[in-house]
Amino acid sequence: MDFEDSPAEAAFRAEARKFLEEHAPETPIGSRDPSTDRDDRLERARRWQRTCHEHGWAALMWPKEFGGRGAGPIEAYIWEQELAQFSIGASYFVPGVGMAGPTIIAHGTEAQKQQHLMPMLRGELFWCQLFSEPSAGSDLAALGTRAIRDGDDWLVSGQKVWSSFADKADWGFLLARTDPARSKRDGITYFLLDMKTPGIHVRPIKDSNGGIHFNEVFFDQVRIPDAQRMGEINGGWAVTRTTLMHERMAIGSASSMFSMDDLLRDIRNSGVEPDAIQRQQIAQVYLWNRSLELLNARVMTKLSRGEDPTTEASVMKLALARLVSAGADAGLALDPRGAQTGQGHWAYQYVFAPALHIAGGTDEIQRNIIAERVLGLPREPDPFKETAFEDLPRS
Ligand SMILES: Cc1cc2nc3c(=O)[nH]c(=O)nc-3n(C[C@H](O)[C@H](O)[C@H](O)COP(=O)(O)OP(=O)(O)OC[C@H]3O[C@@H](n4cnc5c(N)ncnc54)[C@H](O)[C@@H]3O)c2cc1C
Prior knowledge:
- By secondary structure, the chain is an alpha+beta fold.
- It has helices at residues 7-23, 38-54, 73-84, 94-107, 110-121, 236-252, 260-270, 276-304, 310-333, 336-341, 345-356, 363-373; strands at residues 127-130, 146-150, 153-160, 171-177, 188-194, 200-206, 212-225, 229-230.
């Protein structure tokens, strides 16, 4: 990859920078500091999403016909680089614009594209991911939430957990088991779900830092029209793979998670003189940050050649989790007040960082993917791969 901008890329970068200078919100939206008001943050995230849409920056790589910019991966990368300078950090729209949107574009019907894509981009409708269950996280295909056909509808019963923002979401994308007589992956169907449908009960889970991010979601005979099914009946796993790849890429490249500039600025302003060990720690964070930028560039290059970046997305997700943890350690070490009171950005990052080693597939699962697909090691044995779901042993 050539790291110098071509004249066209430099012009694109200048345009992005100008937009951000003129419109970026002054107060970061992304801080999950529990002392800030969630509804206010959500409202500001909606406004920011709308502003991005009005100026053509809401979805860089979506095709123009669906309201995107139709930009290539290199431009998307430049946009991420510029965005990172402004520490806006609005992650509320990642489940929608970052995950559901690309999946609907790839697998949705015309009616689904017409109904969902524009409201998502304009910040009008806000989405959540309804995949994980108490007994299906890393082994997502073990999910047990059941959908049974009833005329033109499906009736869904079961439970999801760790659903980010579900208590505020307008729509969700849901996996349910439609044929337990088939093997785990073969009996799953993918649905789009209006979160106001009767029978859905959302119970927020309080974080260790006092905030609310996740929810438990219970389904009691929830009626979903067949028109809201995406992909084939029992063919949901292929659709799911598209969502999971976009999730890893969205998390791994997220400019909102860590800013080297913020860390250096806070260290300079702290008045604390880093000792030799802390200086080494900061240098290590700088190197990991740079490595992640270069990995991001590699993914974009692959995408621009039409190649599949699934494995790089796993490496990026691993690298980002490590970077955010190390950055939080370094930031908090130089913020003694934050370390004592638990208040402030670095104290918050310190508590939040472990979540990144789990969300979107744990570190161990990313390592399994890298071991099998990059290093060519033998696949992890799964003696029940072909067993019917209903015959699987349960604890
Ligand atoms: C911040 C955050 C946001 C999230 N948001 C959502 C959301 O919006 N929607 C949603 O559906 N889910 C969400 N999740 C859930 C997330 O996808 C799951 O937590 C994740 O997939 C892990 O599943 P689990 O928690 O059930 O852990 P488990 O799968 O039970 O894993 C427990 C431990 O065992 C290890 N392990 C499991 N299997 C293997 C294996 N084969 N090889 C090696 N080690 C293994 C894991 O690495 C882990 O350390 C979120 C999670 C977090 C932390």
